[in-house]
Design a protein that fits this description.
This protein has 480 residues and is an alpha/beta fold. The chain has 19 helices and 16 strands. About 8% of the residues have low confidence.
């Protein structure tokens, strides 16, 4: 904040979020959002929002999450810095520049903003705006990439994607499911950059016919399903002590619900089937964790069987501000995998590719030397590891799955708590046999069922209490 800028208290009702969609960075995860909410509830909004006056309204250019939480907490006023811009074009340029400075983003997301930044500057050449006079002038792709903190090659790759008009490939980069250069390779291997073909009417109907969506409390509805009729359960249940449109549960109520759900899922699963519950720890207040998830895992391990400890690492979790926090950012969710020790899994489908760089080093070592001296006393023959990876088609994945928490518009349809498609897709590949039946007792927007059908499920079953979420799931499953 410049020393000559004045912070004023502004009524929340006079502030409007910016309408341009230039905040490309991933949304806050549930726990991060709750931590920020607790911080604001305790200490008020500490970092001022930045706004631009347009007519009677103040358009927020920086601080959308703080504004949303202020509205939820019904704060009357928040600290704001009001900046003057010559026109909307200059305000947009500031929004992009501020987004680059403040957001933790992937290379693809930064390259996207660099592209947008260059485009705005191209429009503004010859115009004497406040931003153009105050910021470093960017008049080439190379300088735009420097502003964004990415290589010129990354911006060039994004330019290729943008000019292709392929929205599916673009979204796969923005949500962190595909690297820039993998996206460009995908475009080039098709022979030409064309928009992906849409599902035919018959294909959409076939997906709908293969899906059963049930409205009701899953504790009751699960009892109506036949025993040993499901091959895999993959679900992202609601968490306790989190405010959502569908309500807030105490820890005791959550345990009562989940114990019924787990036992019913075990009953409906086939002997080789398994269940994956996606859960994230949360805190009562800053510095004090709630115990529910640890109690649940211990109970499930004793009552059934924990096949392996597995976790999802949201690689785009944002750092949080505020006073006296002093904690690490929360970026890991538990993938509580329950089933028999010999439950079905297809590791070949989830092997990781060996990068060209790593493969080169490993092949070089094949002819040079034997690596040793590990702290554990073990030695490693990299050439044997490389040969094994090449022979089997990839590397064994870790039990910590790196995946962006960002969701595309097609994935959530406005649902407040979504599961990224990449997470659902990975588990469908791993634990759902070909032609198997997939169950999601907390179906939400239907991402898990869509991933199951994409991976060859013969049938998907989803349960939810909210009719509006079942409508979202129906669209998602159909491929719209």
């Amino acid at each position: 904040m410049a020393t000559n800028e004045i912070v004023i208290r502004v009524p929340v009702s006079k502030l409007k979020p910016n309408p341009w969609g230039l905040e490309v960075g991933p949304p806050l995860a549930d726990e991060d959002y709750e931590t920020l909410r607790l911080s604001i509830e305790r200490d008020d909004v500490q970092m001022p929002l930045i706004a631009w006056r347009r007519g009677k309204h103040l358009i927020v250019l920086s601080g959308s999450n703080r504004l949303r939480i202020a509205k939820e907490l019904r704060l009357r006023t928040v600290p704001v810095i009001v900046r003057k811009f010559a026109d909307e074009h200059a305000a947009k340029m500031f929004a992009v520049s501020d987004n680059l400075a403040r957001r933790q983003m992937t290379t693809g997301q930064r390259a996207y903003l660099a592209y947008q930044y260059q485009q705005l500057l191209a429009v503004g050449r010859g115009r004497r705006t406040e931003l153009c006079s105050n910021l470093n002038k960017v008049n080439s792709w190379g300088q735009a990439s420097e502003k964004a903190g990415v290589s010129a090659g990354s911006v060039s790759a994004m330019k290729t994607i943008m000019e292709s008009g392929n929205e599916e490939v673009l979204q796969s980069v923005l949500n962190g499911n595909r690297t820039l250069h993998a996206a460009v390779y995908a475009l080039r291997t098709n022979g030409h950059a064309e928009k992906p073909s849409r599902l035919t009417r018959d294909q959409r109907q076939a997906r709908t016919d293969s899906t059963t969506l049930i409205r009701g409390d899953c504790r009751k509805e699960l009892k109506k399903l036949d025993s040993a009729s499901v091959d895999a359960v993959i679900t992202d249940p609601p968490y306790p002590c989190i405010d959502r449109a569908y309500g807030r549960m105490t820890e005791a109520a959550w345990h009562e619900m989940m114990r019924t759900v787990v036992l019913e899922c075990r009953r409906v699963l086939k002997p080789k089937g398994s269940a994956v519950f996606i859960l994230q720890p949360n805190s009562e207040k800053i510095g004090k964790m709630r115990p529910w998830i640890y109690e649940f895992v211990a109970w499930a391990c004793r009552e059934w069987n924990l096949v392996q400890d597995a976790y999802w690492w949201a690689i785009n979790t944002l750092p949080l501000g505020g006073r006296d926090v002093g904690l690490m950012r929360r970026s890991v969710k538990w993938l509580v995998w329950l089933g028999s020790p010999d439950c079905y899994r297809n590791q070949d489908k989830v092997l990781w590719d060996v990068s060209n760089c790593t493969a080169t080093l490993q092949w070089e070592d094949r002819f040079r030397r034997r690596i040793g001296g590990h702290p554990s006393g073990h030695s490693v023959r990299w050439q044997q590891m490389a040969a094994a990876s090449l022979e089997r088609g990839g590397c064994t994945p870790y039990n910590l799955l790196p995946c962006s928490a960002a969701a595309t518009r097609a994935e959530h349809y406005g649902h407040p708590a979504t599961t990224p498609y990449a997470v659902a897709d990975w588990w469908c590949k791993y634990v759902l046999p070909p032609g198997g039946v997939l169950l999601d007792p907390f179906v939400g927007s239907g991402t898990t069922l869509a991933a199951g059908l994409d991976n060859g499920a013969s049938r998907g079953i989803g349960i939810d209490k909210e009719a509006k979420y079942l409508k979202m799931a129906a669209k998602r499953v159909e491929g719209r």
